[in-house]
Amino acid sequence: MLAALPGVAHADENGISFWVPGFFGSLAATPQQPGWSLANIYYHTSVSAGADVARARNFSLDRVPGNVTLNANLNLSVNATGNLGFVIPTYVFETPVLGGQASVSMIAAYGVVGTSLAGTLSGVLTGPFGNSVPFSRSDSISDTTWGFGDLIPQFALRWNAGVHNYMTYITGDIPVGAYESTRLSNIGIGHGAIDGGGGYTYFNPQTGHEFSGVLGFTYNFKNTATQYQSGVDMHFDWGASQFLSKQVMVGAVGYVYKQLGCDSGSGDRVGCFRSQVVGVGPQIGFLFPVGDMQGYLNLKAYGEFAAENRPSGWNTWVTFSISPPAPGAPPTTKPVVRKY
User: Which residue of 39, 190, 252, 305 has the fewest C-beta atoms within 10 A of its own C-beta?
Assistant: First the structure.
């Protein structure tokens, strides 16, 4: 799994979430071969949002006095891009745990996030004697942050029963990444979080049909720098594919992300601020040998819609992983050995 991508692109506080929709995809619940594996991911996102998210960001930056009541019609927008790389080492245990296959992972990230905010805030400033004074502020600011993201440990269990595969996982955020509450762009999220859930994969090697879905929930701890606590989030990632050969698969991917609980805390100046987004797009994957290991390359992209209280746009993922060859997985071609 993967969580806590750039702190500019997603929901809850300022439209930022711990969970990054789209990490889980095809073959998510299928067991792996015991031993070490390594995944490397390049992630690019480009998103924008209107007045509600931009207003929330202005509040968190302390650019609006606390005694200002803003008008409903705000001419504000925020735009952001992120380019990040992730390194994910995983160890799969050979000894069964609760009849399933246990694995532990650690996710580390490094990259750059750029954000710009522009527009006009207008409202009414309440004076010390209850008098009202018109308030207006025009903003055009931008910020770019390079650095490391938060650390994300994860534990998972997987079970196999023929063409049916099941998984459960638990993960969390260790907030050690680049984060400053007064910055417009952040890579870390500034607070801890716990996330857990379960998933299912149907995979028939004979027909090449595959479908996977993973449902999870996130509990967010309070951000002590802003005294803001995001509500509980729900996320569902899915992937469907057809193996055209033993080495090539094509299909579709998608996700649904919805905040279930309201935001809270003394730093919450925007109210409940529940967020949601839906994404869908294509994918293609390739299996190939890397020495005596199995290589896997996957490219997928998502276009987002139905967004509320969060930026939306599009994102792309390029994943390259090396792992021990898994029994029952789609076979790859053997390397050609020539003797002269």
Answer: 305
Question: For residue 66, how many other CB atoms are within 10 A of its CB?
Answer: 8
169-217 per-position pLDDT tens digit: 999 999 999 998 888 888 999 999 999 999 999 999 999 999 999 999 9
Classify the C-alpha dihedral 70-74-75-79 as positive or negative: positive
pLDDT per residue over 21-67, tens digit each?
Answer: 999 999 999 999 999 999 999 999 999 877 666 555 555 555 555 54
Q: pTM of the full predicted structure?
A: 0.84
Amino acid at the residue 141: I
Structure tokens at 218: 């996130």
Helix (H, G, I), strand (E, B) or coil at 98: coil
Please state, in angstroms and as integers, the Cα–Cα distance from residue 45 to each residue in 82, 84, 226, 279, following that order.
Answer: 5, 9, 25, 13
Distances (CA, A) of 209 to 30, 245, 270, 328: 14, 11, 46, 14
Q: Which of 98, 200, 93, 100 has its CA nearest to residue 159?
A: 100
What is the residue extent of each domain of the chain? 13-323
